[in-house]
Specification:
- There is one protein chain.
- This protein has 5 helices and 5 strands.
- With 131 residues, it is α+β, with helices and mostly antiparallel strands.
- Helix 2 (22-32) links the parallel strand 1 (15-17) and strand 2 (36-40).
- The two termini are 14 Å apart.
Length: 131
C-alpha cells in the first residue's frame, strides 16, 4: 500500500510558525486533538516538528514557565520526510530507524500530510483483517 492511500482518509496537516509560542502550540494541539505540529518558515516550508511529548518535557524542565517560549527554539529540526508514492513499509522503516512517531509527507515541495505510527499500525491491522 502506498502512503497516498492513507492520506485519502486524513485531515490536512496542521502547521505552526516557528516564531509562535509554546502556548499557541498547546492550544492548536488541544483544539485539533492531535499530537504534533509541523513547524513552517515564513514561506510555509516545513523546517521542523513539535510534539505533545516535546511540550511535556519542556513543562517538566521549566516547571510550566514556558508559555512564551518560541517554537523554533524547541522544535525538532532535520525532518525525515516521505512522499505520497512511498510504500507503507518504507515509512514504517523510517519511523523505526529514526525512533520517531510522525513523518511529514511532501509532494513537489508541498506538505500534503503527516503519517504517524498509529496510521501505520491501523493500516497494517486492516490489511490483515482483509486477508
Amino acid at each position: 500500500m502506498q502512503i497516498k492511500e492513507l492520506l485519502k482518509n486524513k485531515k490536512p496537516p496542521v502547521t505552526i510558525k516557528h516564531r509562535d509560542t509554546i502556548e499557541s502550540a498547546m492550544r492548536i494541539l488541544i483544539d485539533n486533538k492531535i499530537g504534533s505540529l509541523i513547524v513552517v518558515d515564513a514561506d510555509k516550508k516545513p523546517i521542523g516538528i513539535i510534539t505533545e511529548r516535546d511540550i511535556f518535557h519542556l513543562a517538566f524542565r521549566y516547571r510550566g514557565d514556558m508559555m512564551d517560549m518560541r517554537i523554533g527554539d524547541h522544535m525538532s529540526g532535520n525532518l525525515v520526510m516521505g512522499s505520497p508514492d512511498d510504500d507503507i513499509d518504507k515509512i514504517a522503516d523510517l519511523i523505526s530507524a529514526n525512533k520517531i512517531r510522525h513523518i511529514p509527507i511532501m509532494d513537489n515541495d508541498e506538505l500534503t500530510g503527516i503519517i504517524s505510527i498509529r496510521d501505520i499500525v491501523q493500516a497494517r491491522a486492516e490489511s490483515i483483517i482483509a486477508d
